[in-house]
Every structure is written in C-alpha cells, then in structure tokens.
Design goal:
The complex is a heterotrimer of chains A (285), B (367) and C (258).
Chain A: H1 2-33, E1 37-39, E2 43-45, H2 51-55, H3 59-92, H4 98-109, H5 113-124, H6 129-136, H7 150-175, H8 178-186, H9 191-202, H10 204-220, H11 222-229, H12 236-246, H13 250-284
Antiparallel strand pairs in A: 1-2
Chain B: E1 8-19, E2 22-33, E3 37-41, H1 48-56, E4 63-68, E5 71-72, E6 83-86, H2 98-108, H3 113-126, H4 142-154, E7 160-164, H5 172-189, E8 192-197, H6 200-206, E9 209-214, E10 217-222, H7 224-229, H8 234-239, E11 244-255, E12 258-263, E13 266-271, E14 281-286, E15 291-295, E16 305-314, E17 318-325, E18 330-336, E19 351-356, E20 362-365
Parallel strand pairs in B: 3-8, 3-9, 6-7, 7-8
Antiparallel strand pairs in B: 1-2, 1-4, 4-5, 9-10, 11-12, 11-14, 12-13, 14-20, 15-19, 16-17, 16-19, 17-18
Helix pairs in contact in B: 2-3, 2-4, 3-4
Chain C: H1 2-29, H2 45-52, H3 54-87, H4 93-105, H5 108-122, H6 128-151, H7 157-164, H8 169-198, H9 201-206, H10 214-224, H11 228-254
The chains are: A mainly alpha (285), B alpha+beta (367), C mainly alpha (258).
Chain lengths: 285, 367, 258
C-alpha cells in the first residue's frame, strides 16, 4: 500500500518538478524580463518598463516582424495548396500502399532540417540543379539568382514544413465517414458540391492544425533565413537570436518572443474554438 | 433451497459509499450464502457494479464492513482477497497467450510450475479451449474471450466469483448459451457466484436468489419466483416483467385475509396478508398472464371492468392484447393460445370485460 | 481518367521535391568535384577527410553522447509520467498536461531563450549539463504522448484484473504495463534520439564553446560555403536518422496485433 503510493508520488513528482523548473519557471522569467530594462553590466536591471513592447513597433523591427509574418503566411498557404490535394489523393489510394507513402513523408520530417536546408542551398545555387534543369528545358536563357531572396526562404520553409501540413490533413481526411459522401451523392450533390459542403467543413480542424504547425515554427527558423535568405529576408527568430546572443538586449528579445507566444496562443485559441463549434454542430445534428 | 446450510460466505454490514457527494451505496446490509448463484439486478446507476467492486476490493467503503467466511476483509486489498472477478470487457492481458492469462493468478501465488500446468490445462478442458491455449486474446471470438476470462478467475479457486455484466457484450444466441454454461460451471465447481446484470430475464433464468437494487439500496431479495410472483414494492413489480396496476379502495374486511375492494366502480374480493383499513387505497398488481378476457355485447351493461381491444399480437405460444379500459388506462393481457376455443379470437375494437384468476393478485399499500 | 493522372503526377512531384535535395547531398558526398556542380567521378575522399577531421569527430561524439543520455533520461521520466497519468486521477493532472502542451506548441526559439535565461540566472556554465537538460526537456512531452497513447488503447480494467488476480503494484508495472508499452517506449527512445541529434535552434542557445555539437558545427561550416566534408557527414546523419525511423516504425508495427 505504502510502496505503491510512494511509487506513484515519485512518478508524478519527478515529471511535475521537471516541467515546473524547466518549462514553467523559465517562461515566467521571460515574461518578467520583457518588462524590465536592459543593463550593460548585469544584462538586466530591475526597472519596470513597457518600452520593449513599444520598440517592436519601431519601423526597423516592425518591418522584420511584418515581413516575417508575410513570408510565413505565404509558406503556410503554399503548403496548404500542395498538402490538401496531396493528402486527399493518398486517402483515396488502396489501404495497402498508403502506409508506405505516408512513411516517405515522415522520413524527411525526422531528418536533420539543417542538413535539408543545406540541400536546398545546393539545389538553388546559381550553378545548381534547378537552374541547370530550367536552362536545359529552355525555359530560361541564363541562370536565375534564386539564393538570398524571399523566394528562397519561402521555398525552404515549404520544403521543411510540408510534412507538418500533410500529416494532420491526412488524418482528418481519412477519418471522414465514407457513407457521408455517399449520402451526399445519393441526395443529388455533385462531386464539387460534396467536397465544398461536406468534406471541406469536416476537415477544417485538420486544415487549421496543419496551418498552425507550419506557421508557428516558420517564424522561428532563423537558420533557414540565415542560410538561404541573406540579410534582407529575416524571420522573427533571427531578431530574437540577435537580441539574445549578439546585442545582448534580453528584455527586448523577451518582448519579441512573448509577442510570438501570445500570437501563437491566440491562434491556438481560435483553433480550439473552431474545433469545438464543429463538434457542437455535429452533436446538434 | 440450494442454500443448504444457510452458511453466510459474504456479509456486507451497513456499507456506505459516495462519489463526489453522490450516494452510490446507501447503508447496505446483505448476506450471500455459500454455494449459491446470486444476481444483483437493477437499472444502470443503481450501485450494483459498485457493490461488486467493493467486494472485489477495487473500491473502498466509506463506512461499514465486509466479511468473507466470517473474517472481516474491509481493509484487505484486492490482491490479497480470496475473490476473483470476471470483468465486463473481460480485461484479458493482450500481450499474453490464453495459457499465460489463465496461469497469471497461480503464478502470483507462487504455485510450483508443474501444478500450474496441470491446473491450467484442466481449466482449459472445462471451458473447451484446449486447442486455443497458445493464441493471443485478440485472435479469439467474443464467446471464447469470455471463457478465458472465466477460466482465469476460476482457476484460482476463489471462495466467491464476481461477474460484472459479463454476458452483455455477447449477441443474443451466444448469451443464451453462455447462461447455461455458467450455471453448469457453477454447479460443477460449487463456488459462490455473484453476478451483476441489468437484464431481468437473465437474472430470472440463472439465479438461486436475486437482489434487486435501486438508488443504492436493496428493494427486495428473494428467489426468482418470489421476485416475480410476489414483488414487495412497485419498483420491483415494474422492473421485472410486465405488470398491470389497478388502484383500488378497500370497502370492507370479509374474513381472515379476504377483503372487498372497489376497482373502477366494481367490487372484487382480494386476498392479502396485509392488515388493511376501510377506505384505505391500495394497488392491485397483476401480470398479463393473470388476466382473462371475456367478450361482451356492445349493449350489455354489467358491473365488471370493461374496455376495448386496441392491439392484438400473435406470439406463438401466447396471444397478447392491449385493452384500453373505459377509465382510460391501458392493460396488457397475455393468453395461452387455444385453438379449440371458439371465443378465443377477439377482434380489434371489440368491447370486452377484464377479470383475473382469483387469489393470483398481489396487493401493495399505496405508499 | 485525366483527374487520376493529375493527382498521381502531384504525388510524384511532391516526392521529388522532398527527396531531391537529400539525394543531391548523398550524390555529392561521393562526387570527386569539390563544388558538386558536375559529376567528376566517384570518390570516397570526403569520407576520409571527415574521418581525419578531429574537431568534427569530437562534435559528432558529443552529439551522440547527448542524444543517448537525453533520450534515455527523457524516456525514463516520460514513461513513468505517462503510466501515472494513465493509472491515476490526481490533482495537477491538468497542470501537467498543460505544461506538456506548452512545450509541444511553443516555438523552439522561445523555449531556447527561456532556458538560456534560467541557466544564466542559476549561474550554470553553458555546456554539457545545460544542453542535456534542454534536450531532455523537449523530448519528455514526446515520450509521454507516445507512451500514453499506446496505453490508452487498452482497457484500464486490465490493471484491476492484475490486482484482482493477486499482483502487487510492482508486479503489475513489470508484468503488464511495461510489456504493453514496450513498443512505444522503444519507438520514443529512437525518435527522441533523432530529435536530439537534429536539434539546431535550442542547442545554439544553451551550449557553450566548451561543448560543441554536430548540428552547430555543420551550421557554422555551411554558413561559410559549400564543403564536401559536410556532404559526407550529412549523408551519414541522414542514414542514421532514416534507419532509426524505420526501426521505430517496424517495432511499432510488429506489435500492432497486441
């Protein structure tokens, strides 16, 4: 009796302590830091200020912020455009080959993304494979400069994050009860109407989950911007990293990261609401 | 009856249990005798499963005591109790073979390997699963899994076997088969079985005694026949089988156990052990098969309970009718089919009189 | 008919997109041409160069050490936690799930700076210990979720059945829970290992010059320009990741019937 409750307490306790010390505490510290003032000697001085948040609207940083949101949004959108039909097609294939195809999506997902970004760099280089291909097909006459452009960053983001879009999409598409589609057809709906009125609404949670899983990490992947974007195409991640590691302005870096987190929380809340409303509709029907 | 020596094997005394301020078991006291097949019957949420889990040691009582063979086991944890459970979803260990599942309890008791082998093999033969002993539970049908679950519990030779809604996952035919098998097994092993179910038919078929529970309390304890024929309250009467209830008022005491009662303006003689006062209101309970139909002319006036037939259903053995009484109530009547009776086949809409076989009625005071 | 073909072409194009950069890296690691633009013949000299690059090898060794420790400790903590979450109802259960969710969802960079801030305030020197703590932290939720979801496929009543048949808590853990969770435990170890081995963002904040790890070394190398040794190294890392992922998938699959 006593032994078992000791074991239980140990199991829960160690996890609880770990998460409190290494997740809760540091996050609280960052929140506090974001309201403090930078100090050259001790990194931080204990003077309350909102200045760090105000400074985010300084054109210098605000431009990076908006540009970063812009690039991440485009990447998310492209992932959705490619990912949805892709996931849909896989869900229509025979059950036997589906796991293999999905597995081929998961493998890059688990391969070092830095190395894969490096692969993109080689692919997009002036004398790289993509230029060579386009030249050979006579689509272009001279090699394009693709590296260190906005295009390169978006290309790499899509490349790295596409699996994060496909997997939740697939799982929500695959879950749709096939008889619902048959019922829609039976009631006279065309294929397109069925998709628009039945399948799309039912897969909405998957769509939003995929968009979140692409959008959120996209904003932080500083090494992608570093490797293929050049100085002009920075992500928020780059700003945070510079503030912390180079300029050593922790309060400002914290404010930037809190902003990112709040943004994320807002999106998650939205996701939760949508998921709930769909569930409710299902229950009322 | 079967409780030869009335030797109490399990005794629950003043047991109480609440979850989140909701009373689940309310001051329950009951005795279960050695070697009997007892069913705890009740609607879902009546506390029957909790009683079983308390007996197994999987839940602890808030107050009260449990005795197993006259020893208090209230504080003994499940793993040290000489009871075993057949769980509702079987709860077979998915990573072990049938053999290993059945051997698990014996291994826990550190019984020597040759004896384990022998006992498990005997058990496998009894439940007819010898050929399946190396399979995993997932490779068995529902009925076979059920047998493994029973074998796994019984092989430990518990003093009491607890079965939690054990047949409800099976389809109708298999359930009937398993009911018979369970009864035979119980006779063969001579272990006390406590079976929990919400299915009244199952309870009537299998049990030596039935404990009817509602809202955490016992409503009635008795043999299936007592429960069916002489329910002691309206809940039991309504919960088990179909019942017709006629409200009545006592007119006078005739003699001994006979009274004159007024039902819907007609006088009937009723018999009961109860002591009743003049003008007391009572309920007369009658099973559909206790009632009789008599055809009437539309013009006939008589001092009988009358009504019109609104439904007729041929059920093979019986012919079931629903009659709307002139007072507006509906009664159900079940008559044995008799081809030779010319009057038998009443037609829909026909006016009839309803009566019952004298002294078959059950009288309950109006609580 | 046409539609079918279009969707098949789409599948093909996506797979080409996902795999071309990987194959270019692998190809170039055997390409005699230094800049990898033309095929100059097969060579293994980049692997030889790699083998003789002591700092790279040291970094690789460090990375593997961290990955082994981080995934083992995370699996130990995460498995115990998942089992407790599966078995018991207790206060703080929501709190734990909430924190796990925070780790899963917060962008790596946010976690990186918050841990950095903690270490600086605690006065810990950035290096092996801080890196290990960080990697354990981001692996834990992963282990908890994998093991928990495996366990929740099973009826909670099997634990009660064990108890009913006379097994103690320890026996139930050893004889019932562990065997059932084993595939998930192994899979989450393998996947934690690759997570740790591949991490760039968190590592670049919480380790110091005293303890260099491979992804950071590669990062600084590829920032400067194309280096064929990196191709060789990348190829090896890709192979390790792929074989671990395949192993994890096979282990999970082989026990599906259970």
């Amino acid at each position: 009796m006593n032994n078992s409750s000791m074991f239980k307490r140990f199991s829960i306790g160690i996890l609880l302590v770990w998460l409190s010390v290494f997740v809760l505490l540091p996050n609280l510290m960052i929140i506090v830091t974001s309201f403090l003032t930078r100090d050259d000697a001790n990194l931080i001085s204990l003077t309350f200020t909102l200045d760090n948040y105000v400074r985010l609207f300084d054109p210098l940083y605000f431009k990076v912020l908006t540009h970063s949101v812009y690039m991440a949004s485009i990447a998310t959108f492209i992932c959705l455009i490619i990912g949805y039909p892709f996931a849909y097609t896989i869900s229509q294939l025979p059950k036997k080959i589906r796991p293999i195809l999905l597995f081929l999506i998961i493998v890059p997902f688990w391969t070092n993304s830095l190395i894969r970004t490096y692969g993109i760099k080689v692919l997009l280089a002036k004398k790289g494979l993509l230029n060579a291909l386009l030249l050979n097909l006579h689509i272009i006459d001279e090699p394009l400069r693709m590296m260190y452009t906005e295009f390169a960053v978006i290309f790499a983001l899509v490349y790295i994050l596409l699996p994060f879009m496909i997997l939740p999409l697939y799982s929500s598409i695959e879950k749709i009860d096939k008889s619902l589609i048959e019922a829609a057809k039976d009631l006279g709906a065309s294929k397109f109407t069925t998709f628009l009125k039945v399948e799309l609404p039912l897969t909405l949670p998957g769509i939003i989950a995929g968009m979140l899983l692409v959008f959120l990490p996209a904003m932080g992947m500083f090494y992608i911007a570093d490797l293929v974007g050049g100085a002009k195409n920075l992500l928020i991640g780059n700003t945070i990293k510079t503030q912390f590691l180079n300029i050593r302005d922790w309060p400002f870096g914290s404010a930037a990261s809190i902003t990112l987190t709040v943004f994320m929380a807002g999106l998650l809340f939205f996701y939760y609401k949508v998921g709930k409303s769909i569930k409710n509709r299902g229950n009322n029907a | 009856m079967l409780n030869k020596n009335q030797n109490s094997i399990i005794r629950l005394a003043n047991a109480k249990k609440s979850f989140d301020n909701k009373v689940i078991i309310n001051d329950l006291t009951l005795d279960i005798y050695d070697g009997e097949f007892v069913t705890i019957l009740g609607p879902s949420g009546c506390g029957k499963t909790t009683v079983l889990r308390v007996l197994a040691g999987l839940e602890t009582l808030d107050s009260g005591d449990i005795y197993l063979d006259d020893k208090c086991i209230t504080q003994v944890p499940a793993e040290k109790r000489n009871t075993n459970t057949v769980f509702q979803g079987y709860a077979l260990f998915p990573h072990m073979t049938v053999f290993e599942n059945i051997a698990f309890g014996l291994r826990m008791q550190k019984i020597p390997e040759p004896e384990i082998k022998q006992r498990v093999n005997e058990m496998l033969a009894i439940v007819k699963l010898t050929d399946f002993k190396d399979r995993q539970p997932a490779q068995l049908s529902g009925g076979q899994q059920q047998r493994v679950a029973i074998a796994r519990a019984v092989v430990n030779q518990p003093k009491v076997l607890l079965l939690d809604e054990s047949l409800s996952a099976l389809d109708y035919k298999l359930r009937k088969e398993m009911q018979n098998e369970l009864k035979m097994l119980q006779r063969k092993l001579n272990i006390t079985f406590i079976f929990v179910t919400h299915d009244q038919e199952e309870a009537l078929t299998m049990s030596d005694r039935i404990i009817v529970m509602n809202n955490g309390s016992v409503e009635q304890i008795g043999t299936p026949r007592e429960i069916y024929e002489t329910p002691t309250n309206l809940f039991v009467a309504k919960f088990i089988g179909e019942i017709n209830i006629f409200p009545a008022v006592i007119d006078s005491h005739i003699d001994e156990d006979k009274y004159l009662a007024n039902v819907h303006g007609c006088q009937y003689t009723i018999s009961t052990d109860l002591t009743l006062e003049k003008n007391q209101s009572v309920n007369i309970l009658l099973r559909p098969e206790d009632l009789r139909i008599k055809e009437l002319d539309d013009k006939a006036t008589s001092v009988q309970i009358t009504g019109h037939i609104i439904e007729r259903n041929y059920k093979g053995m019986t012919l079931d009718s629903v009659i709307r009484l002139d007072s507006g109530e509906r009664v159900q009547i079940s008559e044995f089919f008799d081809e030779d009776d010319p009057d038998f086949d009443h037609s829909l809409g026909q006016k009839v009189a309803v009566s019952w076989v004298e002294s078959w009625e059950v009288i309950l005071t109006n609580e | 008919m046409l539609k079918r073909h279009i969707s098949k072409v789409l599948l093909l194009l996506v797979y080409i997109y996902l795999y071309t950069p990987i194959f270019i890296l692998i190809g170039n690691s055997f390409n005699a041409s230094k800049y990898g633009l033309k095929w100059n013949g097969f060579t293994t000299k980049w692997y030889e160069l790699l083998w003789n690059n002591d700092t790279l090898l040291q970094a690789a060794f460090n990375s593997i050490t961290i990955a082994v420790f981080a995934s083992s400790i995370a699996v130990a903590i995460g498995t115990l936690g998942a089992v407790a979450l599966f078995k018991h109802q207790f206060k703080g259960k929501k709190f734990i799930s909430g924190l796990l969710f925070v780790v899963m969802m917060s962008p790596d960079i946010v976690m990186a700076i918050s841990l950095l801030a903690l270490f600086i305030i605690l006065g810990l020197e950035l290096g092996f210990v801080t890196l290990l703590i960080s990697h354990i932290t981001f692996c834990i939720p992963f282990v908890v979720i994998t093991v928990y979801s495996r366990l929740s496929n099973f009826d909670n009543a099997i634990l009660e059945a064990g108890k009913d048949l006379g097994a103690t808590e320890a026996t139930i853990f050893k004889r019932i829970i562990l065997p059932i969770a084993k595939p998930a435990i192994i899979a989450s170890w393998l996947l934690s290992f690759t997570l740790s081995l591949d991490d760039v963002i968190v590592s670049s904040f919480v380790t110091g010059p005293s303890f260099e790890v491979l992804p950071l070394k590669i990062y600084s190398m590829v920032k400067v320009g194309v280096s064929p040794e990196v191709n060789a190294l990348a190829t090896m890392m890709i192979l390790i990741s792929i074989s671990f992922v395949i192993a994890a998938a096979l282990i999970n699959k082989s026990d599906k019937s259970v």
